[in-house]
Structure formats: structure tokens, C-alpha cells
């Protein structure tokens, strides 16, 4: 009764609960076994209801198609109503854009938690915010950093970071403390300030953030005096990137730069137009994330297939090596069919 694909959508607590039920089921007999079997079925039905909510919040659009593929509903198919085996279902799940978008187990668990029916409302999110803020204040206090010196906006933005990086887990406490030190400790700033100017600009570039040179000079000055921390600026750049490209908010909140999150589209651009983009302000790269929106007017990412098709429709594609070869091949095929060659 337990299935790998349902297991993939459980939080750690739910996994333990289901494991315990299954183990007890294997050892039971008679009425108890039937009762436990019914409980497991109810558990899985409840999880499927929760997954419906997850699908509705999936910006990649890939999760719904995956669920539809689990059962063959084609009446003309010889395998009509057959189910995809768990191993294959699990493998295909991990190839989805949805799965790769979440990147880590912590990010996936947070996606499940905040979109679970009953949790997807402002009141519950306020509770998540309160927990994240309280724990950040506690860790800062333990490190000798006055929590009241931290801007209120940082606390407001910390919830997504806290859960998507697993800082609510005991095994991530050391990483949580490291984040607090890297982001809010000022002591080490003066020693390495000379290297900060280039790294500061590089981080902005990787997240599609532009500022006047005076802004960067002012930031470098603050870094050299120990008034600011480089990692705090990096987090700021990711927040700015989230405002421009909300489609990548999960990756950005998990600590990934926008340039890394868009690597598949960069590869497609390099393959089709034969050049490598250097930053997120490249118009051909940005088009993949700014040209498509859903029925609610929210921006979406263009599929790699559609993106390559769009690139091949650009005049400059015909000037590339692969464009010329493709066109020559098509023309030669036409000539052969017409008996010219």
C-alpha cells in the first residue's frame, strides 16, 4: 500500500508516522491488520488531497502532468487503467522541473509545509514568521549580537530563508549559526575589505542587480569600516532578484544566485545562438523569464523547448554555424525531392 511517490511528498514527521503504520501492519493479523490497512489507505488519501494543493501552487506546471501519467487513462491503450510502478514513478518525479526547482530536501519540505491545506493562509504564515524571527533573535543573542540592531525588514524576509535552508532542523543548527555570523557579524569586515569591491559587484551581476558606481563605492566604504557585512549585501541582492524574477524565489531563498538558477536557459542560449551570456541583463536570456505569464498575470519561465524555438526564429540564428548547417540541410533536402541534385 505504501508507495514511493506518496512517500516523496511527506514531511519527516509524516514519513515516520507512515513507516510505523506499515511496520505494524506487516506484523498484525485479522481485524487489526484490516484496521491498520484502512488507516494506511486513509493516510494516503489524505496525502493525495494535500498534493492537489501542491499542484495548484506549482509554478513550473510539471507536477500536474506527472500525476496524470501515473495511471494510463487511454481507453484504446492495451495497458488501460494500469499504474506506473513505484520505481519508475519515483525516477520520473526527480526529473521534473518542479523537483529541480526545489533543489534540496529542506526546500521541498518547506514547499509542502506552507502549501498544505490549512497552512496556506495569512494566519498560519504569521506563525511561521514568528517562529523564524524568535529563533533568529535567540541565535543572534547567543553569538553576542544585539537582535535589536537588525533591521525589521531582515526579520520579515527571513521566514523563507529559515525554512527553505532547514534552519528549523536540529541537524542544521551549525549552518544556522554560521549564517548569522556571516550575515550580521561586523568584526571581520575590515580585514578583508580590499577584496570586497570586486566580489560585491560580481554578486550583484549574478543576480541581475544594477546600481550606480557611487552606490558601490559607498558600500565598499561601509565594508572597510566594518559597518556592513558582505553576506548581508548578497542576501539583499537575492531579495532584489526575487522582486524581478519571483519564479525563482525558492532557489534564491535557499541561497542560490539567480545566475546559477537560470543555468539551463543559458546552456540553451549558448547552444542555439553560440554565445555565452555574462549576466542576467542579457536581453536574450531575460526574455525566457519576462515574456510568459499565467492566467493570473504572474510571470512564468519559458520551457526550454519553447525558448530554443524562439531563439531559432531570431535573425541572428541564421548567421550561426548550426543555423547555416540546418538551413543548408533543409535546402538540400528540398533540392533532392525536386530532382535538382
Keywords:
19 helices, two-stranded antiparallel sheet, disordered N terminus, mainly alpha, single chain, 341 residues
Walkthrough of the structure:
The protein is mostly helical and 341 residues long. The protein has 3 domains: 4-102, no CATH class; 105-254, no CATH class; 262-337, no CATH class. The chain has 19 helices and 2 strands. It has a two-stranded antiparallel sheet. A hairpin with a 5-residue loop joins β1 (292-293) and β2 (299-300). α2 packs antiparallel against α3 (30-56), α8 (122-142) crosses α9 (152-164) and α11 crosses α12 (213-224).
Strands side by side in the biggest sheet: 1-2
Shape: flat
Helix content: 55-70%
Total domain units: 3
Total strands: the figure is: 2
> Cα-atom Rg, whole angstroms?
25 Å
Q: Quote the beta fraction.
A: under 5%
Task: Supply the number of helical segments.
Answer: 19
Overall pLDDT confidence: 76
Which structural class matches the secondary elements? mainly alpha
Poorly predicted segments: 1-5, 187-194
How far apart the termini lie comes to 63 Å
Largest sheet properties: 2 strands, antiparallel
